[in-house]
Prior knowledge:
Blueprint: E1 3-8, H1 13-24, E2 28-35, E3 46-50, E4 69-72, H2 83-104, E5 109-112, H3 127-141
Parallel strand pairs: 1-2, 1-4, 2-3, 4-5
Helix pairs in contact: 2-3
Amino acid sequence: MKIRAIITGATGMVGEGVLHECLLNTEVEKVLVINRKPCGVSHPKLEEIIHKDFFDISPIAEQLTAYNACYFCAGVSSAGMNEKKYRHLTYDLTIDFAQTLVKINSAITFIYVSGSGTDSSEKGRMMWARVKGKTENDIFKLEFKNS
């Protein structure tokens, strides 16, 4: 089966790389990027949705049902951020998106682009690593069939 991929964060460094690799890969037949601003890329396989509120993807949910993979690359740096704000923009955003996606298409493979050094114990001294670790742990608890 060919890959039909959703990519978030395609205007960032990692997401842009994932986007270009998907467009080059012959096993990927369709790519949908969901961004807050245009990615500036044009390709026959590519569709783009500009959506400002990633905490509520219900207005675009119907457009996501035909895809079988999601690369969640959206994210922010923790530099200069307190834990509450970083958690909101990292954990809350990712989990809200993933929960909506699993409701509309539990057969999708959900790939959370996280990082090296995350803390799956959620108890370490590095704030960003605890938040990323909790995010990873809670994604695994969702009922995606192929994650």
